[in-house]
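Q: Fold this one first, please.
A: Sequence and structure below.
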Amino acid sequence: MWPGLEALPWRWAGGAALGLGLALEVLARLLRGWRRRRRRAPRREVLFFPSPVTCTAALLGEPGPAPCPCPCPLPHGDSPLARLLRRLLSARRSLELCLFAFSSPPLGRAVQLLHRRGVRVRLVTDSDYMALAGSQIGRLRQAGIQVRHDQESGYMHHKFAIVDKKMLITGSLNWTTQAIQNNRENVLIVEDAEYVEPFLAEFERIWEEYNPANYTFFPTEKEQK
């Protein structure tokens, strides 16, 4: 036998192992890069109202086959309201709502739909405006959604929502049909902890402050506004 031939199989095995290790390292790097590319950038979006009236049946329908084509006579297409509904309906775990006025039926149905899906919904609102005709607050309470309200002389005038504790929805928009269809309004949607966390802290502070255990049952009337 030629000198050194007996060592060749071990050299080949060592080379193969080295090649396999390099290939696995390259594959791991490619996989990490693919995951980074797939990771969605944080959402930053601005919506302007008024919103044209469009069909929202496809967004607000219960799970199951939907009629095709949709029999709704309203125009079908994208709109600021439809985009706002999609952001709300992306909630999987929690939804915090802090709203001065809430009378929009589509937004009310979206919140009830999330509640039926098992999303924890909490809502803070203004005691004066929750009693107005058309308010969604009574329907939401009847559905089992937790609602708390103020007992103060001033308005609970916030207008924001927090989706899954990571997406903030805020702006000038009251969640009313009037504001959505007729007013010049804006909504900012952002996924940024720097902004989400202060709003979440404010919600939790108000939520505890408006705990029913702290209510007075013979409150004085609100000051003239």
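Q: Good. Now the second chain.
A: Here it is, same layout.
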Amino acid sequence: MLDQIHLLAAVTVLGVLEQAYFSLQVIYARRAYGISPPKVSGPPDFERVFRAQVNCSEYFPIFVAILWQAGLFFHQGLTAALGLLYLYSRYQYFMGYKESSSGRLAPMYFSAGVLWILIALAAVGILHFLLSHYVGINVLLFISL
């Protein structure tokens, strides 16, 4: 069983490490700009780092849930590759947003596209499982015709 989930687990751990890195960036920004918790406003440079981290954190549970569903029901290798692409695009998003608010746009759209692809793969995989398991219809046979 572990050979069916090891890539998904690795991408998940990398994602958690990325979230930790983003959190550390907020801590460093708080120190650099003298913003003590619970304050969340300050100079624009601080607010961009803070917002970038919060935005990435908001999407992370969606990413992890859909990563595992797509990996388990569709294909682990393809899903893990898309997961790495998503994590890289979120890193680019964070760094772009850190520099300027407009720097976040292209990576944001790209990461959203990757997330939608993962959602589609999960939906196809789950639909295939449900149809083949409960109805006896193999969707893959229809696709290959």
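Q: Anything worth noting on the second one?
A: The CA atoms of residues 93 and 123 lie 26 Å apart.
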